[in-house]
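Regression report. Comparing outputs from two consecutive submissions.

Submission 1:
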Amino acid sequence: MTFPANRRNLIICLLVVVLAGGCVQRRMTLRSSPPGAAVYVDDYQIGTTPVSHDFVYYGTRNIRMVKDGYETLTVRQPFPAPWYEYFPLDFVSENLIPWEIRDERVVDLALAPAAAVPAAEVVARAEQVRLAAGAQPAVAPVQAAPIQAVPAPVGPPALQPLPAPVQPGPGPYFPGPPPGMPVPAQPNQPAQGIPSLGLP
């Protein structure tokens, strides 16, 4: 089966358009005031502001921004689909248009400075968390008694009796040096024999 030249050229053009069809490039840019906040989109960290990130599906995203010294900000940000992404136009915009369509979304959020929390409130929150975790009941704080000065005694210090001296008991009995060791000479005793035990 043969086609006329102009029909064949039309079919080739349609195939080229379908194979090299267009697409929609979706991109969100998140900025904060002040910049430098860590950004989480649907609980996935994507960087620090300002940051741009591609996305595939339209809908509502959970965006959380965290920065030291500022309150953590959490918002539900809708990204509605544009008119050319509704059925049946989405097939044409995604497949048949021979150029790229860019859909850029910009979200600007302002962070509030963190408020100073009083120490009593921090302690109360800690007690609530401890009780919720099933710990022991809270113990009332102990108030320290004021320190009172003790008057110095007038006159000489009282003398305490000394403990009784410990009387030495009989020492252990040593029968003599080990075998093969020479016996030292003692006064008024012969050099050989058994050493004197101090008996008369």
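Submission 2:
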Amino acid sequence: MRYALILGVLIAATTAQAQWEIQTAPTTADLRGIDNVGKGIAWASGSDGAVLRTTDDGAHWQLCPTPPDAEQLDFRGIQAFDEKTAIVMSTGKGALSRLYKTTDGCKSWTLLLTNPYPEGSWAGIVADNLGGGAIVIGDQVGDRFSIYASRNSGLKNWFLFEHPESAPTVKIPQPHSKDEVPFAASNSIIYGDAWNGLDFVTGGRDGSYLYATKGHSWPLDYNFTTFVVVPIPLAKGPAAGAFSITTSTGCNPNKAGECAYVIVGGDYMKPDESKGTAAYAITWGPPNRFKSSITPPHGFRSAVAYDAASKTWITVGPNGTDISTDDGRNWRALHPNPALHEPTDADRDWNALSLPYVVGPHGRIGKLRPTAMK
């Protein structure tokens, strides 16, 4: 609730101010994964096999022992469940894409899965809040995206469920072209909690698309047979497209009632280009049409999050931070607050969000200030 109040103050301000408190991290790794568990517990991950953990609401960050043979891995995704349990996903070609799990507060790690294909890379992981099921999505393998799933509580058994021989009732649509990719930017191209269905977004030269399980049923129960595929009006190019998706918290797409879907991205090779950086849809059930934001974020954005209590969306990227209070239709920039002695770059150089935390390159961690409303 206190972070909702913080955002409420930001919204009301004539000149929006970022209110990011820069925290001290015991690493210079580029951080791209962040997962706030709650009750003062959060985990982060990044390059050079880095995994970090806080158990005191961000006052101190612990650099975990590196998982076995992972010193050169880039951990772009992390899913945490409590102060002792977390899964990290690395991104890289072939066997550089791996999953590790800890159940003892990162004292030790277990290798869960290694990408068996020499080509292609993993882009995102989503797991339920009890750690009993998970899905990993990656680049195209053959003529389909590579999607791995596990349904047992230990996450020891995995299968590639998009191929007919693995899951004959699940019909994963073919990519629109060989250049279509899911981007591994902030572990937020995939949305859900593993029990409510699989939504993921892509990009590339030929455009961006949302792939959503029809009915939003858990794929491993085979309660669906098809995906809804929806084009997204975002920037096009080899480094452009959709990089992050989220929905308004608490909406149930299986019941009558409005759900807001917001997707951000752009061209990461053109971080200051604002055109094609955000799209939104207001819908009952999975969206069938996205619209471009009227006033887009002021640059490429790699992550977006939603605060339900204040009904505020926040998005971050290399050149700044933006918020929306009208479900993604219009965005406005946040700026550092001189009165709080924030660095002049406190609003920028961010990769990923899990409110109230934000992470970025060179061990950069920020947190929305609990004193922002005072």
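Expected: both submissions complete independently.
Actual: both completed, but the second showed a warning that disappeared on reload.
Relevant detail on submission 2: Residues 9-15, 215-224 have pLDDT under 50 and may be disordered.
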